[in-house]
Amino acid sequence: MKQVGTLLIILILLSLGAYVLFQNSQDTKKGTKSPDRNFTVESMDIVDKIVIKHAKLSPMVFTRTGKSSWLLNGKYNVNDAVFINVEKCLTGMKMLYIPSKAANKSIGESITSDGIKVSLFENKDENNPFKTFFVGTDTQKGEGTHMIMEGASQPYVMHLPGLMGGLRSRFEQPLGNYRDKYLYRLPLDKIEYIEVQYPKNEVSSFLIEMKSPIPTVTKLSKITDNDNKKLNERILRQYIAQFEHLGAEELINDFPNRDSIITKVPYCVVKIKTKDGFVSKNSFFGYEDIVEGKLNSRTPKDIKSLNRLFVWTEEKDFYTVQSRVFGGIFLGYEDFYR
């Protein structure tokens, strides 16, 4: 009987030990070191949501939608090239040094008045972040950034080893900088039709319908007729393929003359409907023509010769795009019969 009791005690102790080891393993993945230095995670794989709240700006909520894809504020795809700077901080930043006690008060006051609160969540939990810390100002010499864990009293100066400079800017980008700049990212099998109109040159306007086995091109004007000419399938397929990946140069919703530009007659309007019913409509305006007031481009060839264009989207966003990227979409109806 005594042996049974002894074995039972040993089993209980072993179970407790295993539980503690498991918890330590989980804490290690979440970056646990010391309670007031626990700024990082071992891997972004355990993070499903990040909320960044600036003391003076609207909050930004990043929600994981895939292995390496995120949605911003439930609406916008995230720009991977910018967001990776946040990820590198969350997994790689280290303590550079502990500020002097004399500096702690001013650091705390600065964080209270102008700090950035960063909260990390698992399983998109709405109310219970597993980690929260505050980002303060960069140090006077700019070699690191003041940070403090929620509930802690001791701030630290954090940095990314091997990189010069503070980290605050990585959490303080305007919402537009975090957004994906792709205007078109459409798999070919998802497109129902592409309608391209040239309001100043209607003869060039056309409609592409994704019919099987060969897409069709229909003129939108009765001025010209290609009934006796043969459609160039190679040009047509190359044209459609462009819409899989076309990204803008810059999002410029705060551009001073935006509202006057979008009231002008657009040079080209591209409307695309996908098979799931989504419709995008983008209006293109000549950048040089408007800003420099030199030209009045009308034909697809004229538009393609410009260096840059403004784009006004159905989602009420204003972009600039480069013709070296987008120039290929400015074809006329006749071009498909060369």
Describe the structure.
By secondary structure, the chain is α+β, with helices and mostly antiparallel strands. It folds into two domains: 34-173, no CATH class; 182-337, no CATH class. It is built from ten helices and 19 strands. The strands form three sheets. A nine-stranded antiparallel sheet has the order 4-3-2-1-6-7-8-9-5, with helices on both faces. A hairpin with a 5-residue loop joins strand 2 (60-64) and strand 3. The longest helix has 28 residues, at 2-29.
Layout of secondary structure:
Elements: H1 2-29, E1 49-54, E2 60-64, E3 70-72, E4 76-77, H2 80-92, E5 94-97, H3 101-114, E6 116-121, E7 131-138, E8 145-149, E9 156-159, H4 168-171, H5 175-178, E10 182-184, E11 191-197, E12 206-209, E13 216-219, H6 233-241, E14 246-247, E15 250-251, H7 258-261, E16 268-274, E17 279-286, H8 287-292, H9 300-305, E18 308-313, E19 318-322, H10 323-326
Antiparallel strand pairs: 1-2, 1-6, 2-3, 3-4, 5-9, 6-7, 7-8, 8-9, 10-14, 11-12, 11-16, 12-13, 15-19, 16-17, 17-18, 18-19
What labels would you give this structure?
alpha+beta, 9-stranded antiparallel sheet, 8-stranded antiparallel sheet, 10 helices, elongated
Quick description:
With 338 residues, this protein is α+β, with helices and mostly antiparallel strands.
